[in-house]
Automatic annotation (TrEMBL):
Signal peptide: none annotated. The lineage of its organism: Bacteria, Pseudomonadati, Acidobacteriota, Terriglobia, Terriglobales. One of its GO terms (biological process) is DNA transposition. GO terms for molecular function: DNA binding; transposase activity. This is Transposase IS200-like domain-containing protein. It comes from Chloracidobacterium thermophilum (strain B). InterPro entries: Transposase_17_sf.
Length: 82
């Protein structure tokens, strides 16, 4: 699985860099991806429900992040992929 994640991070970083050059996307200060990532093996329904809830509600907590760009819309930060 680490190879899959590494490949995904490499491809998306390249695509974003291409978008910065070709489509005037805003450059990303620092690194686009965190150096490490957290993984969790889902072993039971309770674990699955907790992770599912985190994924669903995490964007709702975006405005609480002190490091975000104040005034930015989370969808503008993500972009539409074009």
């Amino acid at each position: 699985m680490p190879d899959v994640v590494h490949r995904f991070k490499t491809m998306t970083t390249k695509r974003y860099a291409d978008g910065v050059r070709a489509n005037q996307w805003p450059p990303f200060p620092g690194r686009l991806w965190q150096r490490n990532y957290y993984e969790h093996i889902i072993r039971d329904d309770q674990s699955w429900q907790r992770i599912r809830e985190y994924i669903l509600t995490n964007p709702l907590r975006w405005h609480l992040d002190r490091e975000r760009d104040i005034g930015a819309d989370p969808l503008d930060v993500i972009g539409d992929g074009t």
